[in-house]
Design goal:
Low-confidence stretches: none
Distance between the termini: 32 Å
Radius of gyration: 15 Å
Helix content: 55-70%
Mean pLDDT: 70
Order of helices and strands: HHHH
Number of domains: 1
Protein backbone atom coordinates (compact mmCIF):
# COMPACT_ATOMS: atom_id res chain seq x y z
CA UNK A 1 0.00 0.00 0.00
CA UNK A 2 1.32 3.42 -0.87
CA UNK A 3 1.85 5.91 1.93
CA UNK A 4 -0.39 8.52 0.34
CA UNK A 5 -3.28 6.05 0.10
CA UNK A 6 -2.83 4.98 3.71
CA UNK A 7 -2.73 8.59 4.92
CA UNK A 8 -5.90 9.40 2.97
CA UNK A 9 -7.65 6.42 4.56
CA UNK A 10 -6.46 7.58 7.98
CA UNK A 11 -8.04 11.01 7.50
CA UNK A 12 -11.30 9.53 6.19
CA UNK A 13 -11.36 7.25 9.24
CA UNK A 14 -11.80 10.33 11.45
CA UNK A 15 -14.52 12.06 9.40
CA UNK A 16 -17.52 10.22 10.92
CA UNK A 17 -16.11 10.49 14.44
CA UNK A 18 -17.16 14.12 14.81
CA UNK A 19 -13.77 15.84 14.94
CA UNK A 20 -13.84 19.53 14.18
CA UNK A 21 -12.36 20.74 10.90
CA UNK A 22 -9.38 22.34 12.66
CA UNK A 23 -8.39 19.00 14.19
CA UNK A 24 -8.68 17.23 10.84
CA UNK A 25 -6.65 19.96 9.15
CA UNK A 26 -3.91 19.64 11.78
CA UNK A 27 -3.83 15.86 11.32
CA UNK A 28 -3.64 16.29 7.54
CA UNK A 29 -0.75 18.78 7.80
CA UNK A 30 1.16 16.49 10.18
CA UNK A 31 0.70 13.49 7.87
CA UNK A 32 1.83 15.57 4.91
CA UNK A 33 5.04 16.45 6.76
CA UNK A 34 5.59 12.80 7.73
CA UNK A 35 5.09 11.72 4.12
CA UNK A 36 7.60 14.29 2.85
CA UNK A 37 10.11 13.20 5.50
CA UNK A 38 9.74 9.51 4.68
CA UNK A 39 10.06 10.08 0.94
CA UNK A 40 12.88 12.63 0.97
CA UNK A 41 15.00 11.47 3.92
CA UNK A 42 14.42 7.73 3.79
CA UNK A 43 13.28 6.99 0.25
CA UNK A 44 10.22 5.20 1.62
CA UNK A 45 7.13 5.32 -0.60
CA UNK A 46 5.34 2.14 0.51
CA UNK A 47 4.68 0.64 3.94
CA UNK A 48 6.40 -2.56 2.89
CA UNK A 49 9.69 -0.70 2.61
CA UNK A 50 9.59 0.49 6.23
CA UNK A 51 9.89 -2.89 7.94
CA UNK A 52 13.17 -4.07 6.38
CA UNK A 53 14.79 -0.85 7.58
CA UNK A 54 13.94 -1.83 11.14
CA UNK A 55 15.28 -5.38 10.99
CA UNK A 56 18.98 -4.54 10.88
CA UNK A 57 21.26 -3.86 13.82
CA UNK A 58 20.24 -0.20 13.78
CA UNK A 59 16.68 0.81 14.46
CA UNK A 60 15.06 3.69 12.68
CA UNK A 61 15.15 5.75 15.88
CA UNK A 62 18.89 5.27 16.34
CA UNK A 63 19.50 6.12 12.69
CA UNK A 64 17.47 9.30 13.05
CA UNK A 65 19.41 10.26 16.19
CA UNK A 66 22.67 9.71 14.32
CA UNK A 67 21.49 11.88 11.41
CA UNK A 68 20.42 14.59 13.83
CA UNK A 69 23.80 14.42 15.57
CA UNK A 70 25.57 14.65 12.23
CA UNK A 71 23.55 17.69 11.13
CA UNK A 72 23.96 19.66 14.36
CA UNK A 73 27.30 18.29 15.50
CA UNK A 74 25.89 17.51 18.94
CA UNK A 75 24.47 14.47 20.66
CA UNK A 76 20.73 14.20 20.70
CA UNK A 77 18.75 12.30 23.37
Amino acid sequence: MKLEDAFNEYIYYFLPKGFINKTLLNKWKELKNVKVFLKDKSGITQWERIYPALTGSKTLASRLRKEKKDERGINCP
